[in-house]
């Protein structure tokens, strides 16, 4: 298999690949770094290098990951990967291209979309729905029945109370405690969480 992206996210996914006894053949990156550890080769992507490969898009930025997905989806197939130390309920669905990192806990009846990153030690409780291209950062905790819409990013160690909806492309700041619905494209920080930006514009509250 191969990785698209050769920065920090690729380094942790390479480790995940080895933990699962898979082989990484090479990486591609639009702007290859001078050096990638472990003597792995990084090339600029071409249709020949991507064609019929099994691949993970190893890019933390949700919008960029989605953009690349649309550019290459006709060429390759996408691998889904889960670290052996993660607990993923047998009643959970996980979409293609999603990675589940070490020590994650995902409880029953959760649905996780395509090309998501469920990062180290995140907790996703029962019946949550995580749409495509979402990133749940390390140690974030989601109580039951939460809907996280496409492209949202839940920051490091954020805590989300049960039953709420996080809108498309919303960003929940590190350590925030979110008690109510968050609209699309909002940036929320603090405890209790408050909106500091909407659509990239400062809120002024
Ligand atoms: C493996 C990995 O590395 S995965 C990646 C994990 N990383 C994360 O989760 C990071 C998430 N990002 C954050 O928390 C960021 O601080 C953001 C996106 C919420 C805000 O970033 P910016 O838009 O650049 O806002 P900026 O830094 O200008 O801060 C604006 C205000 O919000 C405050 N603020 C920013 N982030 C937070 C936060 N997480 N909690 C509380 N307050 C915050 C700032 O102190 C500042 O307040 P002030 O105006 O009173 O001085």
Automatic annotation (TrEMBL):
InterPro entries: AcTrfase_PglD-like, Hexapep_transf_CS, PglD_N, Trans_hexapeptide_repeat, Trimer_LpxA-like_sf. The active site is at 126 (proton acceptor). Keywords: Repeat, Transferase. The keyword Transferase applies. Residues 2-72 form the PglD N-terminal domain. CDD domains: LbH_AT_putative. Substrate binds at residue 60. The keyword Transferase applies. GO terms for molecular function: transferase activity. The record marks 127 as: Increases basicity of active site His. Acetyl-CoA binds at residue 135. Belongs to the transferase hexapeptide repeat family. NCBIfam families: NeuD_NnaD. This is PglD N-terminal domain-containing protein. It comes from Kaistella jeonii. The lineage of its organism: Bacteria, Pseudomonadati, Bacteroidota, Flavobacteriia, Flavobacteriales.
């Amino acid at each position: 298999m191969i990785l698209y992206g050769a920065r920090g996210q690729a380094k942790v996914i390479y480790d995940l690949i080895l933990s699962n006894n898979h082989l990484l053949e090479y990486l591609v990156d639009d702007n290859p770094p001078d050096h990638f550890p472990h003597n792995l080769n990084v090339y600029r992507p071409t249709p020949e290098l991507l064609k019929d490969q099994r691949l993970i898009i190893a890019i933390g930025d949700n919008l960029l990951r989605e953009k690349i997905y649309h550019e290459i989806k006709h060429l390759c197939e996408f691998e889904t990967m889960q670290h052996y130390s993660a607990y993923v309920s047998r009643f959970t669905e996980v979409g293609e291209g999603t990675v589940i990192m070490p020590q994650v806990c995902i409880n029953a009846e959760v649905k996780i979309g395509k090309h998501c990153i469920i990062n180290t030690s995140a907790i996703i409780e029962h019946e949550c729905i995580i749409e495509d291209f979402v990133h749940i950062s390390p140690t974030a905790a989601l109580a039951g029945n939460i809907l996280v819409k496409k492209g949202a990013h839940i920051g490091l160690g954020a805590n989300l109370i049960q039953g709420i909806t996080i809108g498309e492309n919303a960003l929940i700041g590190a350590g925030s405690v979110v008690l109510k619905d968050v609209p699309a494209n909002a940036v929320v920080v603090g405890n209790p969480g408050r909106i500091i930006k909407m659509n990239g514009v400062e809120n002024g509250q």
